[in-house]
Amino acid sequence: KAGVTQTPRYLIKTRGQQVTLSCSPISGHRSVSWYQQTPGQGLQFLFEYFSETQRNKGNFPGRFSGRQFSNSRSEMNVSTLELGDSALYLCASSLYGQVRETQYFGPGTRLLVL
Amino acid sequence: AQSVTQPDIHITVSEGASLELRCNYSYGATPYLFWYVQSPGQGLQLLLKYFSGDTLVQGIKGFEAEFKRSQSSFNLRKPSVHWSDAAEYFCAVATGMKTSYDKVIFGPGTSLSVIP
């Protein structure tokens, strides 16, 4: 069974631009969660999607948004990029949720904002 | 608010030696606890989790963790460390009451180096 895939793996943007990251979960998984990892703040929960609905959200500004498609693939979007958005963005999938079931993480997308 | 602390930012051990990584949590109700490992260039992998029952939990790769409610701790242990165990280790706690709607909060991580 293929694991969680994230595209692109690396990305360089400039301040003010917007970016879209993609995550393809393990086949059959309906929950997709997104995390931001930085040296200063560590791993922070962004949001979780289940059956195309956002059902949980972390403490991030509205510039961070996401969506999930009917095939469970998910995208996250960051608008008006700031230098502080430079981070590794991790996506994780699970059958029904990030607590009861095991989450499987993708390799991440490393975003650099210049 | 729920939180997780890992007192040791970095630990170095010799190969073959025992290992204990500390984790303390702050949570008012029964916690749901996890340990994850992140190897260089790879995503996170779940080592083990505690939901209820036996307070000593066995995980993958020879790791185990013990939940101590009185100390609010969930320390990770391994009797004999291998060079391939060098990685970043994250303790995490789940909020809420074990529903699919809860989220996982991660600690700051402990970086493990292994000396051959």
Average pLDDT figure of chain A: 94
Portion in beta strands of chain A? over 45%
Count helical runs of chain A: 0
Order of helices and strands of chain B: EEEEEEEEEEEE
Q: What's the helix count of chain B? A: 0
- Mean pLDDT over all positions of chain B: 90
Low-confidence segments of chain A: none
Describe this structure in words.
The complex is a heterodimer of chains A (114) and B (116). Chain A starts with a strand and ends with a strand. With 114 residues, chain A is mainly β. The model of chain A has no long low-confidence stretch (mean pLDDT 94). Chain A is globular, with a radius of gyration of 13 Å. The relative contact order of chain A is 0.32. In chain A, strand 5 (42-50) and strand 6 (53-57) form a beta hairpin. In chain A, the strands form two sheets. In chain A, strands 2, 4, 5, 6, 9, 10 and 11 form a seven-stranded mixed beta sheet that branches. Chain A has no helices and eleven strands. Chain A is 0% helix and 53% strand. Chain B is mainly beta and 116 residues long. In chain B, 0% of the residues lie in helices and 51% in strands. Chain B contains no helices and twelve strands. Chain B has strands at 3-5, 10-14, 19-21, 24-26, 32-38, 44-50, 56-58, 64-68, 73-78, 87-94, 104-106, 110-115. In chain B, strands 2, 5, 6, 10, 11 and 12 form a six-stranded mixed beta sheet that branches. In chain B, strand 5 and strand 6 form a beta hairpin. The termini of chain B are far apart. The model of chain B has no long low-confidence stretch (mean pLDDT 90). The chains are: A mainly beta (114), B mainly beta (116). The A-B interface holds A 4, 31, 33, 35, 42-45, 48, 50, 55-56, 58, 90, 92, 96-100, 102-103, 105-108 and B 32, 41-46, 49, 90, 94, 96, 98-109.
Topology:
The complex is a heterodimer of chains A (114) and B (116).
Chain A: E1 5-7, E2 10-13, E3 19-24, E4 31-38, E5 42-50, E6 53-57, E7 64-68, E8 74-78, E9 87-94, E10 104-105, E11 109-113
Parallel strand pairs in A: 2-11
Antiparallel strand pairs in A: 1-3, 3-8, 4-5, 4-9, 5-6, 7-8, 9-10, 9-11
Chain B: E1 3-5, E2 10-14, E3 19-21, E4 24-26, E5 32-38, E6 44-50, E7 56-58, E8 64-68, E9 73-78, E10 87-94, E11 104-106, E12 110-115
